Each structure stands twice: as structure tokens, then as C-alpha cells.
Amino acid sequence: MQRGCTVVVTGGGTGIGRAVAERFARQGDRVTVLGRRAEVLHDAGREIEGAHPVRAVAVDLSVPEDVERALEGLPVDVL
């Protein structure tokens, strides 16, 4: 895969999601982490920031309208 992709990781604030987000960020990709807890996401974003700032978006993924709003205008290469 070519580096510099836009990657969206659900559950990116903790556990496996955070590890996945960190891996992509360290490889130079632009990463957005999604989850329900804004503070956890922002902390994770600051800690795993790579070549680009990590965007943190608090969203309830069980509400389709919230997901659409969170991703509006964001190109997604990898989800």
C-alpha cells in the first residue's frame, strides 16, 4: 500500500483500535480515530501522532446520521 493514505479507525482510543491507528500513523498515514469517548480519543490522538496530527472524532457509530456527519468531507482510503 502506498503511504500517505487517509485511514479511519473505529474504536481508535483504546486496545486493538488504538494499536492499529498508531501503526498507520507511524507509517506516515493521515489517521482519524472514531469512538464514543471524546477525552479518550483526544488523549490517544496526542500520544500516537506520527507525521500528521491524528484527528479524533467522538461519534456514536450506532446512529447512521452521526457517522455521516463525522465523515463528511473526509476522504477515506482505508476503514
Topology:
Blueprint lengths: L5 E5 L4 H12 L3 E6 L2 H11 L6 E4 L5 H8 L8
Parallel strand pairs: 1-2, 2-3
Strand order of the largest sheet: 1-2-3
How many beta strands in the DSSP annotation? 3
Pattern of helices and strands:
EHEHEH
Q: What level of helicity do the residues show? A: 25-40%
Determine the structural class based on helices, strands and strand pairing.
Answer: alpha/beta
Please report the number of helical segments.
3
Strand residues, percent? 15-25%
Shape: globular
How many distinct folded domains?
A: 1
Uncertain spans:
none
Mean pLDDT: 91
CATH class: Alpha Beta
Protein name: SDR family NAD(P)-dependent oxidoreductase
Pfam family, one: adh_short
InterPro entries: NAD(P)-bd_dom_sf, SDR_fam
Organism: Streptomyces carpinensis
Summary, kept brief:
The chain is an alpha/beta fold. The chain has helices spanning 15-26, 38-48, 64-71, and strands at 6-10, 30-35, 55-58. The chain is globular, with a radius of gyration of 11 Å.
From the structure above, extract its key features:
3 helices; Rossmann fold; globular
